[in-house]
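Practice problem 4.
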């Protein structure tokens, strides 16, 4: 089968925009579409890609379709809108952190139309999306992942083949579960330390030189919590969605998940407290409120 050259890209939000831009830089012919009016045109003007006003228009003539939107429901809507334009042999690459079961349903429907699908969610956040250094977790037929590899390598530096369709999304949700748990326990440790009299910034340095090191100690606590910026670029609501998917996989596999369930409930409580639009790093404010302590600040009287 001929190499992929023409790509339709649906969803140019915080992650999708730099990912699509890297495809343009790599020499692919990229046509983008987005639910936000004018965003596709702005992308085309800035990057040299092409803009489409509808998903069907974007998919016309494409050999591959990349979709990265917030939920599997929106993936299904994008696929339905594109279906009349999808030729047999087109490859759909779902890079959404979606629901594995729903993805398998979409893949089965597409297979009936001669269209293949793989799932390939990403990890690394906006900074690594911009540099093309994302970690990619792929699920699907080996031959289809092989076919997608040149496209994926333009956006990421490591491709992890996780199993059949849906396996990449299951792995992504479980990765975020581990990340979310590490974040919360780290925040609690900083709060304990500050109330004891330790400097939280120095605590982060010690953790990073010790066995308590994790992604949050390395890349989030100083940058987004102690700075009070809370602007890492990944929504709190999206983290709650991913944790819910992880628990869904847990239920489907009849795996006891008491700690994971508590973790998910704490993140959901923070989302309810902070409201729509909060960055995921702002979950620290829930623990701060419970302890009456602001990290980097003073104990509230």
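Answer key:
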């Amino acid at each position: 089968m001929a190499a992929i050259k023409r790509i339709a890209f649906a969803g140019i939000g915080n992650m999708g925009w730099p990912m699509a831009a890297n495809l343009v830089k790599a020499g692919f012919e990229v046509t983008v579409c987005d639910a936000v009016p004018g965003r596709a045109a702005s992308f085309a003007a800035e990057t040299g890609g092409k803009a489409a006003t509808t998903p069907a228009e974007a998919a016309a003539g494409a050999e591959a379709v990349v979709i990265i939107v917030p939920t599997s429901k929106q993936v299904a809507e994008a696929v339905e809108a594109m279906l009349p334009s999808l030729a047999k042999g087109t490859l759909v690459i779902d890079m959404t952190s979606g629901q594995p079961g729903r993805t398998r349903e979409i893949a089965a429907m597409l297979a009936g139309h001669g269209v293949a699908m793989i799932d390939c969610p990403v990890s690394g956040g906006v900074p690594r999306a911009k540099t093309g250094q994302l970690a990619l977790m792929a699920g699907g037929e080996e031959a289809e992942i092989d076919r997608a590899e040149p496209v994926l390598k333009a956006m990421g530096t490591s491709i992890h083949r996780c199993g059949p369709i849906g396996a990449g999304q299951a792995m992504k949700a479980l990765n975020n579960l581990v990340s979310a748990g590490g974040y919360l326990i780290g925040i609690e440790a900083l709060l304990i330390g500050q109330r004891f009299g330790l400097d939280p910034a120095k605590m982060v340095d010690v953790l990073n030189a010790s066995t308590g090191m994790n992604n949050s100690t390395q890349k989030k606590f100083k940058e987004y919590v102690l700075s009070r910026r809370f602007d890492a670029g990944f929504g709190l609501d999206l983290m709650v969605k991913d944790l819910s998917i992880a628990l869904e996989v847990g239920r489907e596999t009849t795996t006891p998940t008491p700690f994971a369930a508590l973790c998910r409930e704490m993140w959901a409580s923070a989302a309810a407290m902070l409201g729509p639009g909060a960055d995921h790093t702002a979950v620290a404010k829930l623990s701060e409120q419970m302890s009456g302590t602001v990290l980097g600040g003073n104990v509230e009287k």
